[in-house]
Design brief:
There is one protein chain. The protein is mainly alpha-helical. It has one domain: 3-Layer(aba) Sandwich (Rossmann fold). The chain is about 50% helix and about 5% strand. Strands 3-2-1-4-5 form a 5-stranded parallel beta sheet, sandwiched between helices. Strand 1, helix 3 and strand 2 form a beta-alpha-beta unit. Helix 3 packs parallel to helix 4, helix 3 packs across helix 10 and helix 11 packs across helix 14.
C-alpha cells in the first residue's frame, strides 16, 4: 500500500513550474523561458484581471440575485442547489439562504459512498438554515455494478457514475420544477486549475450520456435500468438556450478565501473539516488519495494546491511541503482498500488486480468534440472561467 515513484510515460526530463506546483506528470504541460507553466500564464492574462479576486462585482451579483428572485415569483423555489457536503457547495448554500435570501431546492445524491462527516455537515447546515433537503438514493446494486464497470476499463477517472448522475438530476429537477437558475459551486478562488486533460485519456466528458452508456454496455455484467442519464446536447444546449435554464456561478462575484469559507461555516454551523478537497466521499477519497497516485503517478493535490498558490492563498513553498507527504497514511490506505473491496462485494485480490492491470487504451463513444467546441466558444465569449488544459 505504498506510494511508489512512477516514471512518466513520455521521455521528458522532469520539470516543475517555477510559479505553481504543476509538473510533467501532466504530459501536455508547457513552460515559458522562465519555467512558468501555461496555466499560470493563462491565469494572469485571462482570468485574474476580470475576476479581481471577487472584488468589484457587487452590481453583477445584485442583478443576478434580483433576476433569480423575479424568476421564482409564485413558485416554491427560485433556484436549484446541489449539496455534496463539501466546502464549496456548503458555503454557497450559506450565502444563498442567509446572505442573499434565495429559496433553493436543495438536493443531495446518496450513491452509497457518503462519509459520516459529510452527512453531519449537511444535516447541521440544512437544519439551522431551515431548508428542506431532498435526497436521491441511488440504486445500490446498480451503482455497485457501474462502479465495477469503470474499474474494469482500466481508466483513471473512475468517479463518472456518480458525477454523471448528479448532472442528470440537475437537468431533471430544473425542468420538472420549472426553475430557471441552477447555482453551481464552482469558483475561481479554489478551483481555477482543473485536473490535466492528459490524466483523462480515453475517458469521455462526465456529463456525456453517450460515453456513460457505452461503458455500461461494454463492461456492466447486469442490466442497468433505474439509472438516470442526460446528454451534452440537453445539458449544454437545449436546457440553457431552448428552455432558458441558466447555470450560474455566483461565488465568482464574492470576495473570500478558502480560509474565510472554513471559518464562516465552522462558526455558523459547527462545520467539521474533512481534510483534502473531495475527501467527504469514501470512493473519491480512496481514488484520489491512493489509487491515482500509486497506479498512475498523478497527485490531484497538484491542481488543488496550484489553484491556491496562483490566487495568493498559499505560498509555493507551503504547497511543496504538503506534497512531500502522501495524501493518506499507510494505515488509512489499507483501511480504505478493504472497505472499498467490501462495498463492491469483491475480494481484495480482485481489486488489486484492477490496480495492476494495463492502463485503458479502449475507445468509447462520446460527444467529446462537441464538448471541446463548446468550451472554446465559452472561452471566446468570456463565459468559461476555468483553466482546462
Amino acid at each position: 500500500m505504498t506510494y511508489p515513484v512512477i516514471k512518466p510515460k513520455n521521455n521528458r526530463k522532469y520539470q516543475i513550474c517555477t510559479c505553481c506546483v504543476m509538473d510533467t506528470s501532466d504530459e501536455d504541460i508547457t513552460f515559458d523561458a522562465n519555467g512558468v507553466c501555461m496555466r499560470c500564464n493563462e491565469y494572469k492574462e485571462r482570468i485574474e484581471p476580470e475576476w479581481n479576486h471577487g472584488k468589484g462585482h457587487e452590481k453583477e451579483l445584485h442583478e443576478l440575485i434580483k433576476a433569480i428572485k423575479k424568476s421564482g415569483e409564485g413558485k416554491k423555489y427560485d433556484c436549484i442547489l446541489g449539496l455534496s457536503g463539501g466546502l464549496d457547495s456548503s458555503y454557497m448554500l450559506h450565502l444563498a439562504v442567509k446572505e442573499w435570501g434565495l429559496r433553493p431546492f436543495v438536493f443531495h445524491i446518496d450513491a452509497g459512498w457518503n462519509l459520516p462527516v459529510a452527512e453531519e455537515n449537511i444535516k447541521r447546515m440544512t437544519k439551522k438554515l431551515g431548508v428542506k433537503l431532498h435526497i436521491k438514493h441511488m440504486d445500490r446494486k446498480e451503482m455497485m455494478e457501474m462502479q465495477l464497470a469503470w474499474f474494469r476499463t482500466g481508466l483513471e477517472m473512475l468517479d463518472a457514475p456518480q458525477d454523471h448522475a448528479f448532472i442528470a438530476l440537475i437537468d431533471k429537477y430544473s425542468v420538472k420544477l420549472g426553475v430557471k437558475y441552477i447555482l453551481n459551486g464552482y469558483n475561481i478562488c479554489t478551483e481555477i486549475i482543473a485536473d490535466p486533460a492528459s490524466w483523462e485519456r480515453c475517458s469521455g466528458p462526465t456529463g456525456d450520456g453517450t460515453y456513460i452508456r457505452d461503458v455500461v454496455k461494454k463492461h456492466c455484467n447486469v442490466p442497468i435500468k433505474e439509472y438516470i442519464y442526460t446528454s451534452g446536447l440537453k445539458h449544454k444546449f437545449i436546457n440553457p438556450y431552448i428552455k432558458g435554464i441558466k447555470t450560474v456561478k455566483p461565488l465568482n462575484y464574492v470576495e473570500f478565501t478558502r480560509k474565510s469559507m472554513m471559518k464562516t461555516l465552522s462558526e455558523e454551523y459547527g462545520y467539521v473539516p474533512y481534510g483534502q478537497k473531495h475527501f467527504e466521499d469514501l470512493i473519491t477519497k480512496f481514488l484520489e488519495g491512493w489509487w491515482q497516485p500509486t497506479r498512475f503517478g498523478h497527485d490531484i493535490r497538484r491542481a488543488q494546491l496550484s489553484s491556491l498558490v496562483v490566487t495568493g492563498q498559499l505560498s509555493r513553498d507551503e504547497a511543496l511541503e504538503i506534497l512531500e507527504k502522501p495524501p493518506l497514511t499507510e494505515e488509512e490506505s489499507k483501511k480504505l482498500f478493504r472497505e472499498v473491496a467490501k462495498r463492491l462485494q469483491i475480494s481484495e485480490d480482485e481489486l488489486m488486480k484492477y490496480h495492476n492491470m494495463p492502463e485503458c487504451t479502449e475507445k468509447f463513444r462520446s460527444q467529446e468534440k462537441f464538448y471541446n467546441l463548446g468550451i472554446k466558444v465559452y472561452e471566446t465569449l468570456g463565459l468559461e472561467k476555468r483553466i482546462r488544459k
